[in-house]
Amino acid sequence: MKNMANLIGGGLALLFCAFASVASSHAATVLYFDGFESNPNTWSGVTQVPNGTDGVPSASGSFHGSPSLNAFTQLGGYNFGAGGGVPTAFQDYSTSLDIYLDVGGSGWTNGTRFDYTSAINDSDGNHVRDFAFNAGFYDDATGPGSANTDRFIIGTSNNTGPNEDPKAKSNPIAIEMTGWYTFRHTFYESGGSLNVDLAVLDSSDVVLGSWMLTSGAPSDPIGDFGGNRYGWFPGTTPGASNLFIDNSQLTLAAAVPEPASLAFCALVAIGMVVGEKRRRRQKEAS
Fold first, then answer.
1. Do 43 and 11 share a structural domain?
2. Which of 36, 93, 222, 281 has the fewest other C-beta atoms within 10 Å?
3. pLDDT tens digit string along 168-208?
4. pLDDT tens, 93-117?
């Protein structure tokens, strides 16, 4: 009976460890979300429009947003991605926004540009740096994609403005099909520094292009960073006014299991192995 109790107790402990591991790996927390289903919304300079406006279906729900120049959001509040406190310590987080790219739409001429950037604060809530998608509409023969075909070309950098030519960026991509695309920033600590992965995904969550940007300065240790500052379409690139947006989101990354919890789970596993060997020896001796 004692052995049976030990087995049950050990099994329950391992079940707890397995559950804790799965929960921690999937427990990313959405801290902020705006699908533009309510009006007013959390963006400055964005008008709520119903599904089907100008022939554009909402990415989800019954409404989406139409931005003007300099449209921006605080993504729930400055430093929200680090827990909302100022001063506050950095935590891994991501921001994302769905943007409708109309390859054959009106208002786009060759070279029309737009930028979308997600910026980060320092631990005291002051602006540090932008991480930008640099994009433009092209129908000429140069750059990635099919020559002389209507398409958007997208690259990335730490800057915005009319001089940030996406064709000149590292590994630009071309998008030749009209539809909704997710523009995602993932902020995370690596080797004591800040890294930011930028990615463009299609409506099936297939990654079409990805780029990794560092903090931009070797003297920027992770302890100098806090949380998000804003998502922003700078007014220096007026193509933003020809876009539609939906599903603005900020997500706090899943917590890594506590070292003490990992040690406990390891001890449980070792104890069960040792106990099983002991029971086998006792059975062979009898």
1. no
2. 281
3. 999 999 999 999 999 999 999 988 889 999 999 999 999 99
4. 999 999 999 999 777 999 999 999 9
**Full domain range(s) for residue 23:** 1-27+259-286
> Cβ(218)–Cβ(191) under 8 Å?
no
- In 3D space, the residue among 228, 226, 229, 231 whose CA is nearest the CA of residue 124 turns out to be 226
Q: Are 165 and 134 in contact (CB under 8 A)?
A: yes
| 212, 33, 224, 92 alpha-carbon torsion, rounded to 10° | -60
Give 276's Cβ-side CA count (13 Å radius): 10
Quote the tokens at residue 14: 């391992």
CATH of the domain at 153: 2.60.120
CA 216, CA 132: separation in Å to the nearest integer?
A: 13
Measured CA to CA in angstroms, residue 167 lies from 75, 140, 141, 144 at distances of 29, 12, 12, 8
Domain co-membership, 139 together with 203:
yes
Phi-psi region of 139 (alpha: psi -120 to 50; beta: other; left: phi over 0): alpha
Q: What is the pLDDT of residues 205-234, one digit of tens each?
A: 999 999 999 866 666 789 889 999 999 999
If one counts the domains in the chain, the total is 2
Tokens of 238: 């007026």
Task: Answer yes or no: do 238 and 274 share one domain.
Answer: no
Say if CB 17 and CB 268 are below 8 A apart: yes
